[in-house]
Amino acid sequence: MKEILLIEVKSELGAGTRGASLGIDAVKIASIDLQSDFFARYDSVNVRTDNSPLFTGFISPSAKYVNAIIGVEKRVCNAVCEALEFGQLPMVLAGDHSTAFGTIAGVKKAFPDKRLGVIWVDAHADLHTPYTTPSGNVHGMPLAMALGTDNRDVQTNEPPAEVAHIWEEIKKIGVEGPKLHPSDVVFISKRDTEAPEDYLAEKFGMRNYTTEEVRKYGPKKVAAMALEQLRECDMIYVSFDVDSLDPSVSVGTGTPVPGGLTVEEAKVINTELVKSPKVLCWEMVEINPTLDSENKMAEVAFEIMEATARSFEDSRMKPVLV
Ligand SMILES: NC(=[NH2+])NCCC[C@H](N)C(=O)O
């Protein structure tokens, strides 16, 4: 049986509001309050992070803290790659979504010849680049990094040479060049995007299953449809941003958007997705307890993570021969 390895990434340099690096500990506290032994059950590794640049300021408004984020991306990439090479099932628990690029790079580094598909369960597309970002927040850019695109067709910013250089270096992490093809990305509950992101999504026909479609077909069917969409892929990574949940569940995340999933829908989607033997890595991000009350977001996030871990593990158990 393959074993789960928890990979903790307490970085929040990519978010626009402060506090996401505390999300990992908030989830641990939730597990204790919910009387679960989850964090005793699985081994975990801590990726080295350093949020201290927040005290001194960013290098450029077109990609804030990207000079420090590049180091975290490399370390996440190596941790994920090592876990996969070791035959483990990495479940990444990270602060802001920017480091999901490191995860993707790590998956590709471990299996460079395999075709990778990504299921992005998120209110956002995270397809910006330093050339298009409206906010400069790098958590809006990880999927563009993975696709290796600059999206200059619809450029709105002129980043300084230093940022352009770091951006080029980031895109090389793991393996040279794009980690996946844009048509091998599927979104679930994406509902808050900007024009340059829509341009890419339309150009490459990137499928989004809206919250309405989740209601219409049911979360189980949508998970099956998302997997079917990626049938040509050899391996799949699932990235779950808690802002895919509706703000009525909790506002404990930096960029909440109305019209999101219920806890039950998110639970069904994630537990169904990881049943696919092609799914080899799952991640959860953007829990921010400083924006929350009574640790609500961490509690529901933990509930989803625990159910997903159980499904991930159970579906990989070898049948017992009698
Ligand atoms: N993973 C996230 N929470 N991303 C939020 C991105 C919001 C917005 N599109 C931006 O680029 O600033």
UniProtKB/TrEMBL annotation:
Q: Which domain of life is it from?
A: Bacteria
- Enzyme class, top EC level, equals hydrolase
Sorted keywords for this record are: Arginine metabolism, Hydrolase, Manganese, Metal-binding
By its UniProt entry, which PROSITE patterns does this protein fall under?
ARGINASE_2
Pathway field = Nitrogen metabolism; urea cycle; L-ornithine and urea from L-arginine: step 1/1
Q: Which cofactor does it need?
A: Mn(2+)
Q: Which Gene3D superfamilies match?
A: Ureohydrolase domain
The family database entries (Pfam families) matched by this protein are listed as: Arginase (PF00491)
Q: Which family does it belong to?
A: Belongs to the arginase family.
This chain's protein is named Arginase
Encoding gene (name): rocF
